[in-house]
Every structure is written in C-alpha cells, then in structure tokens.
UniProtKB/TrEMBL annotation:
Stated family: Belongs to the phospholipid scramblase family.
Entry superkingdom: Eukaryota
Record's function text: May mediate accelerated ATP-independent bidirectional transbilayer migration of phospholipids upon binding calcium ions that results in a loss of phospholipid asymmetry in the plasma membrane.
Descriptive protein name: Phospholipid scramblase
GO cellular component: plasma membrane
Keyword set includes Transcription: no
Cofactor: Ca(2+)
Main subcellular localisation: membrane
Length: 250
C-alpha cells in the first residue's frame, strides 16, 4: 500500500527521524508522522492535528467488469491531500454479494508505518426499520483489541439516526441524516450534534462525485468534520460512524 519506511536506529539509542512529505513508490504523499502523545492510543496522534478527514473509495476495475462486489478500500486524507490512513474491508465473497448493505464486516485502518491503528467491527444485524429491537451497531477499537466506542443506530420512522457512545456505552454525540439520502448534483449531509441535539459539533457528508461516477460505479467520496479539540477516541468513532453510514445508505 506504499507505506513509509520505519526509522532506522543508530548506536547510542538515537533514532533518525523519518523523511517527511516524500512520495512513496506509488506517488502517495503521507501526512508527516506526529510525535507520540501521553495517554493517546498509538496511531491516533494524527487526529490531534486535524479537524476534517476526506475519505476516497478506491475504484475496483474487477467490480466494474464483473458486477461482483469486492472488498472495499479507502484512502483517508487531510485537507492538504496528504494520506492519513488507509482502510481495507475484510469480508468473504459470499457475504458481500448475498448480504449486500446489511453485511457484517471488519475494516482495518492502517497508518503510514503499516500499523493497524483502528479496527471497525460490524456484526450481522437485521436491516429492517420495522424491527427496532435489532438495529445496526459498529464497534471501534484503537488499537485493535481495545474498545474506544460504539456507533448505534436509533430507530426512527423516516430519518437515519445514530448515537456515538464511549467505551462505557455512555452517549456522547448524536447523528441525524436527511429523510432522502439519494440526491442529484449535491452533497448529502449527516449532522453531528451534542447529546441533547441543541449544539452542532460536526458533520459527515457524502460528496457529489459527478454524474458518470455516481451512475456507473459505487466509488464514493465522503468528508468528516469535527472540532480540533475533540477527544481523539471520539474522532476515531466518528470515522467508524462514517463507514457504517456508507454501508447502510450508499
């Protein structure tokens, strides 16, 4: 995936800093590696320096030619176009093509050193709005094996609604989308608000990608905005919320 090389050690315990902002063999420019931060999950230091993430789904030629759903891959970039993370879905062919938008999945999010820093787990759940007792849920781990939060779908008659929870299942943020998520020539916005839904906190947006790409491929572009000082764990959970919304609505 074009990851940067690990920094090399030198005698005396000195570690040479990695070369920053240099394109890898595939031409990708990664975001500079930030210094470690106390009490911050490893790999989430990047999120302390940004207030928005752009997610680009990669085009899969095999999927276009055959019509069979393949494992999705995504680039997560900052506002400067530098890659922050790379994300890859891991599901089997039968599950992808039989379950469709309701399929369970595991998505691994990898930093520029090739470390898996965030893992998203979506179990198999009922996808019917008429069955409010078994709605969608996604678990966010950072690092893998350590749960930092959940994204829980809330039942509503006509609006897509979700709750972001911390690792103790306490409600932290609310997400509300539009009644109609398929719109032509404009973005589709999901508003992120405080628990009482009185204060806007951020936004998850599906970006309009042009008529040809929208009609003939399922590659989409998304944006996430959040306060710079939001807890990095909740930023990671918002990334998970975006992927759950993508799988359900687009």
């Amino acid at each position: 995936y074009g990851f940067q090389a690990q920094p090399m050690g030198y005698p005396g315990g000195f570690v040479a800093p990695p070369v920053q902002n240099q394109p890898t063999m595939d031409g990708t420019i990664w975001m500079p590696i930030p210094p470690s931060i106390p009490n911050c999950p490893p790999g989430l230091e990047y999120l302390t320096q940004i207030d928005q993430i752009l997610i680009h789904q990669q085009l899969e030629l095999l999927e276009i030619v055959t019509g069979f759903e393949t494992n999705n891959k995504y680039e997560l970039k900052n506002a400067l176009g530098q890659r922050v993370y790379f994300a890859a879905e891991d599901t089997d062919c039968l599950t992808r093509n039989c379950c469709g938008p309701a399929r369970p999945f595991t998505i691994s999010i990898i930093d520029n050193l090739g470390r898996e820093v965030i893992t998203l787990h979506r179990p198999l759940r009922c996808s019917s709005c008429c069955c409010p007792c078994c709605l969608q849920e996604l678990e966010v781990q950072a690092p893998p094996g350590t749960t930092v939060g959940y994204v829980v779908q809330n039942w509503h008659a006509c609006l897509p609604k979700f709750t972001i929870q911390d690792e103790r299942r306490m409600d932290i943020l609310k997400i509300t989308g539009p009644c109609i998520v398929c719109r032509c020539c404009e973005d589709v916005n999901f508003e992120v608000k405080s628990v009482d839904e009185t204060c806007a906190v951020g936004r998850i947006s599906k970006k309009w990608s042009g008529f040809v790409q929208e009609m003939f491929t399922d590659t989409d572009n998304f944006g996430i905005s959040f306060p710079m000082d939001l807890d990095v764990k909740m930023k990671a959970v918002m990334i998970g919320a975006c992927f759950l919304i993508v799988s359900l609505s687009f």
